[in-house]
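Limitations
The structure tokens in this dataset are predictions for the assembled complex, not deposited experimental models. Users should treat interface geometry with appropriate caution, especially where small molecules or nucleic acid strands are included. An illustrative entry is reproduced here so readers can see what is and is not provided.
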Amino acid sequence: MKRILLTLAVLGMAFSAFAQPQLNENNIEEVLKAMTLQEKATLLVGGARAAMVNGVTSGVSASVPGAAGNTRNIDRLGIPVTVLADGPAGLRIQPTRPGDPNTYYCTGFPVGTLLASSWDLSLVEEVTKAMGNEVLEYGVDVLLAPGMNIHRNPLCGRNFEYFSEDPLLSGKMAAAYVKGIQSNGVGTSIKHYAANNQETNRNEDDAIISQRALREIYLKNFEIAVKEAQPWTVMSSYNKLNGDYTQQSEGLLTTVLRDEWGFKGIVMTDWGNKAGTVKSAKAGNDLMEPGNQNEIDRIVAGVQDGTISQEELDRNVRNMLTYIVRTPRFKGYKFSNKPDLKAHAQVARKAAGEAIVLLRNENAALPLKGSEKVALYGVSSIDFVAGGTGSGDVNKAYVVNMVDGMQNAGFTLDKSLVDFYTAYKAYDAAQTAVAGSAMSWFSRRKLSEVAIPENGINNQARANDVAVVVLGRNAGEGADRKMMDDFELTSVERELLQRVSSTYHALGKKVIVVLNVGGVIETNSWKNLVDAIVLPWSPGQEGANAVADVLTGKVNPSGKLPMTFPVNFMDHPSSANFPYNYQQTATRGFSWGPRQPQKDVDYTNYEEGIWVGYRHFVTRDVAVSYPFGFGLSYTSFSYSKPVVKAVADGFQASVTVTNTGSVAGKEVVELYVSAPAGGLDKPARELKAFGKTKELKPGESQTLTLNVSAYELASFNEAASAWEAAAGSYKVQFGASVDDIRATAPFTLKKAQSWPVHNVLAPQAK
Ligand code: BGC
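Predicted assembly:
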């Protein structure tokens, strides 16, 4: 009897496999044909919050704990669940599981802004190759990263996740990031497409942007990443752009992304559930995340009432199936849950060291010897920020703080200060526990700076050789930073810097500042008080070791700023249209009835157009605290006269860089171009290419050769809806920063060229 049953079961399985095609790389059309409407709709909606739906099981149980979402399985057609998890400073999954003695920590790598400060594409690829290995080995298919929105304004709460104020640097960084992750056979999701440049009311805010600014600044970086690296997926943003939710914008998701740039993967929504599911699907948004039953219902109804055509539905499902067959889950990869975290921690440390920016170093205050007695000030020395808050946070096994980092490097720390800050942190933790206000995922609280007791500084200055002051800022998803007490120093921080500087300087001792910040802060009013400023941003779990390496000179800093440090916040033209003082109130969002649209909250006018970051400062000659592309070294470099020659498609420019100082070091070389006058109003100069030397020994030289195509010289002419490169003489400039041009040569574009594109995404009158 048993045998008969078994035979029947086997026959049954064989029959059902015969009747129902099982998905493979070569039968996507066949599987598509075999799918019911319900199944098709199911595949277009994530399964993170769903249970069993109309006989189609969701993939919750097969997902990885702590992953942000998944796509749904359809067992009868051999379609497995695939798993999506954040990103971008490392993989974010739950580190422990109930009843399981194993741990699932991931490496906390440097944040995007620090990676961009390296200006080193191969380094970024090395980092993300390691990061992608954790994605693969923890059973995840797509890392929801990189974050790559433009730093339109210094106070966007998520700038730390993003790369730069410049689209070329941002696009190249993103391409390198994608290549590194995807070299593991897992995918990326470049995000948030597009114009998600503020967190305030990010779900509804309408970014109103001219077509030129959109094409040149806010889409250009995505264009570069898509064309150079073909990410598996793109994440549309929450916000509106020129009147439409980006996830419902056919111009953005189909015309520009696929038709013009040749994107081949899937588009998924950011994590929400907007009512216009059908409009999203029609626009080319393939996957709704995290997914809800009502979205499936809406798609089914949309097909039934003809709002979305069968062809449009099939197009999206085909995209999904094409994505699914590439995934490790589909291929049955046996993940180990045991990536080499030790090796990856070393990658994280190295990357931080290669990217830290030295902003100031008066009278060669740095490097230190490493044997000094150090008075380490600032609560951030102990409450160190390795990453940021929200989905960009990584559950790492440990964070090396500045106390550990300095001690690991051999410094002797003033014990009274370490004890003082340790006690303050413990006191705060106890208070928080008593108040019962658990720190939420979105809002890990940063300890505010605390005043040092009277006389403390005098005693410490006498007992130690040098003061190191760590100033910290935390930021994250869901809220923008504020101008007061965030961009600006707090009064306690200012007083600390003043008192430490005057006391130590009176004794002929140096003061070094370490900026453990997620975004740009004001530096102009206080930088002259101190001898050196080191900027590691939020450098990941090993970052404080890297800071110590820079302080001792074990690592010669070679990072440069991927954005401008302005004198005043209001010097950025975007500040006139940014919610820099917005108070999140409990009532907003819950208010009943219509209300007047609020500027910078319900809509944001990008009135500054293309004049973002250095484009504004260099063209209008506005003084800055530290310019775009700036960073010091412990050595110096000279630049030869460049050689520029025309090639079939643009020009090739070479420059020889020589280490003219006394220690080994690397130099980032920035190639800027000034366009001929006439035609469109252009920035005084724009970054068109960059490179970084290898480590050059004193006296050693290296020739860097960079290519720029005619298309890359083009600006966007709205009237013609075309990219245009004017004929005439271009000034090719090699700079150590945008304000420090070292060598110049001309290039002549003989014939004007133009590349027409679709006239889409125009702002609607408000
Ligand atoms: C964030 C995304 C993230 C997603 C999943 C959203 O709130 O904006 O960046 O990937 O959540 O966690």
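Some entries come with short summary sentences. For this one: The chain has three domains: 2-331, 353-571, 636-756.
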